[in-house]
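Hi C.,

You asked whether I'd gotten around to modeling the 188-residue construct. I have! Everything is below, sequence then structure, no commentary in between.
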Amino acid sequence: MRKTTIQLTAVCACAVVLALGMVSAASAQDFGYSCFCPLRTDDNCIVLGKSGIGSPYWWGHAYWSTANRDWGGSDCSGFLIKAWQVPRFSAIGQDYHPFGTWDIFNYRYHWYPVGRSTAAKADAVGYPDPDGGGGATGHVVMFETGSAYGQAYVQEATPPRIIRHWRSLSGDIWRVRRRHNMIVGLGL
């Protein structure tokens, strides 16, 4: 009986520690939102994004092949969601596109807003569809380096291909989102 009580106490203690960790992480990241997407580093996201460079732009899709740059394709939000791997793991060859640009800027499922002055590697920088009606669909890029107020080196799915280049982010329309459960700045 004593062994069972000790095991149960240990399990309860671990559950409390995990729960407190989740609450404090979620609170720090986004005022109480919690996310159960896999832990990733900013470098993991950048490397996965690089694997799509040269692949076609294809609205409403999110898959590509490193062996055949004419197969598959992705739009801007699909590319970001694939590189971020939210809400779950998705192989590059699997067409998985659960969120659009409007979702990225209007909900906080697996990301949260940060100030432009704190933009970091692998953050999303973009603007939303103003009314959600699809007439102006918005756009999003994955930030690598530079200035979120000026010239930035980004990964971007834009017709005709997914590219990596310098792009102007000047103007008031741009917003920044950071993935929940992302480790920023380790330089792995």
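If it helps when you're writing up: Residues 37-183 form a domain with the endopeptidase fold (from Nostoc punctiforme) fold (CATH 3.90.1720.10).

Thanks,
B.
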